[in-house]
Amino acid sequence: MNKNILIILIVILIIIAGAIYFQQQPNIVQNNQNQPPKSEANTNSEVLNVTIQNFSFNPAEMSIKKGSTVTWTNQDAMPHRISGSGFQSNTLNKGQSFSFTFDTAGTFDYICSIHPSMKGRIIVQ
Fold first, then answer.
1. Three-class SS state of 76
2. Could you report the per-residue pLDDT of 77-113, keeping only the tens digit for each?
């Protein structure tokens, strides 16, 4: 068999195997929006959005108030998974979201655990 054809077949098989793997990942999205209303102590909270697109987080860094909720929404065709100190999403396919409420002040770095070169930071005041 021609060496180039063999290489092409191997690449195609790897792509198919990857597609099957990601299709079988749970499509459950954690979402804090169905939580009971916050106490009056948290009435200054905000809901802020991060868009995942072109293998990056936009904005990559944001400062928020304690008690605020950040929602990440995947706009890429490829799946992503948010992973930070104290929080982690399931695999997010295109159009899916993950929300997390930051109740503790501090700096929270996070990545996409599927594509670790994607990095972001939430600064909670």
1. coil
2. 999 999 998 999 999 999 999 999 999 999 999 999 9
| Residue ranges covered by each domain of the chain | 29-124
> Of 2.40.260.10, 3.30.530.20, 2.60.40.420, 2.60.120.380, which CATH number belongs to 29-124?
2.60.40.420
Q: What tokens does 50 get?
A: 């991060």
Token look-up 């990440």 returns 72
**For residues 26 and 88, is the Cβ–Cβ distance under 8 A?**
no
Structure token pair of residue 125: 């005041």
Beta strands in the chain (DSSP E): 47-53, 56-58, 61-64, 68-74, 82-84, 87-88, 97-102, 106-112, 119-124
Structure token pair of residue 119: 């990095």
Q: Are 30 and 38 in contact (CB under 8 A)?
A: no
Reported as a single tens digit per residue, the pLDDT across 4-40 is: 777 777 766 666 655 555 555 444 344 444 333 333 3
- In angstroms, the CA 17 to CA 23 distance is 10
DSSP class of 37: P
